């Protein structure tokens, strides 16, 4: 089971919000097997006000006064479904162009949104294109003004199209780096050869290169019309005055393109899919590292009455560790992962199953087991427990996925756009509750028909997962590259709609802090706005304790915690959570093991009890340990075949010496070298109450939670002093260092530039945040983005950041380019760093960066799951509990002199480590 995020193509990757829709999101309280009662406390449609303007614009408003923020979203009913032959990707190309400015505001809209402190993004999908921003409530009218402006007046000229075509092609070529993407594209084209759904949402390079200005303008005029759009506003506002502002901004926009829309809607995707007999698998034999399988079955459209039963069926097959396909494939050692999902769209969609083979396992054998599992589902009724578990997971994920106003707006926008009725979710949930075991059998027989299946195999030709290395890069970096002048914020300001700046986090509640008698630290922050709980935690048992010989030990230990305890096996642990739609997970980072948990508020006891059980009583069964090791080895192969992860590994190892705790990364030898005794010893040494911190945010009574924690974790005892690791300071390289790693079969190169940076408690941290916001904190509004992305069109995305933890992490810049553009992009980046070092920044840039950071901060505080992470991190880093409230003031207190000093201390273009991973031909002309 997975949310339908695979349907989306969004282009601001650093800001992409994982919020979208969808049939796989829902909640549950115990009820008879065929009737599951929805949870009370959160109604997505209660309080929604629908208005249709005279020009046809649908407006949905929902007041939610839990935080001083608002979300403004515009959903257009157009996506790749509407594209004709030869224009695949035009919806996506237009999405990019919608950020290039308007007649009255000829500036990058990303800079305007950033200046308002908006958390913004956009995506294109099969049926829709959506634009969304979430801001402090005083910026509501400003967002409305900007969205209305680009609905009518977007600049679509030769200059804009030429530069953004290059960016889109860079994005598409980046997808080509992924074997999963290439396999999915081949399977979808074979499954739907005569339908637009069979083509990639993002488009094809061949079609994108041929787009003309007239073609894109006509598409814009046809579909970006008020009567083809839904405006959604959720959050802290007054409906009456907001509707007046909406009418002022949008009411004067005319309808347009009706005839063209009607012509394009006719029959584009209506070709029925009829049985053609079993087809031979599509086989891709290409460079890669792991074997993949994907199968696709046609489904009806989203309004078909079978949709709820199909989604419950999917949860039974792929919904968590207790699901049938996970048990049959992953727990048996045949596959390292399996997932599935139903794409229920405006027109007939599909159901897909994806699997990654375990080491040495044949895809044909995996396919046989999948077929047997599907056949059993068709022939034998599911049990009441299994049916209830699936319904619970669907319903709980609906509540958990809509804790914040951005997600709630997206759910409304999706339902209105795809089904024509924002109330659809109510009908859907009611139908989910009534799905029976007979319904599951019926839809399994109807839709999981082998005669209608399209299946594809990816068989890697580079099976050892070892990336070729070229050592030091021979191509030269051009040193005399001259960057353009930085954008003047004063010039930008004249295009900003009026908005006050009222950042005020003084009312933010502070977490209650206390420690159990055994030293375990706890932070509790009640929030009764939604009936959920969010748990974040950290154990000081991260990979900094790994040795090079046993690199991966920390992660292997964390990955086995849920594989069994003294009283429960792995399946029992999974079912205890999944029966209630709750989740709990562990992953080792460099400085600790991260704990993440979510659930409905009524299920906090089982979440805490399960956490307590595995922290104190994990048993590490040998069989499960071997399965986890095999999955880790497969994951390693995939990482070595991915320019992003391989580039980061090589970059990190170029910065830190071999004896440094931040140097070690797992290898096949180190993972194989780890014994069960190593894991048990690591667990006993490093999993201790006095090195553990837990933060809980949500709908609970603190006194009851304190009692629960004392009962569950109070008897956990540590022996002796906790282990420590010495993290030495790292000197910068004396000269610029270059490394190139070649991975066969890749289309795009990924480059990292940087060196060792600062810690979170470094007094320069806040100045560094402001500096980074100016330099590369946002690919659309930063100096790097303006120069390398917008002006030169060399990259789909370029970002910078300080990885500041308890210890100093790296300062880094990351970008993706065509291999022949890598040298120019590197040269322009270095030139920008030199310009920054030599000329500094302006007071206007500093002021704008401050406003961006402080204005966007309340948006983060409006999401309970974000808040749990923030208060945890503040505690782990040794900061005051009041940091969550005082952070904006600390940013505002930074002076111009502080920023200039940070530039002097932290920007060292002559000491850069530059690592490029990808195809290898990174010099112009492919040399």
UniProtKB/TrEMBL annotation:
Provide ranges: composition bias, Polar residues.
265-274
Region feature Disordered, mapped onto this chain: 255-280
Q: Which residues form the Peptidase M16 N-terminal domain?
A: 59-204, 521-643
* Superkingdom of source: Bacteria
Report domain Peptidase M16 C-terminal positions.
Answer: 210-394, 673-852
Family the entry assigns? Belongs to the peptidase M16 family.
Tell me the protein's name: Insulinase family protein
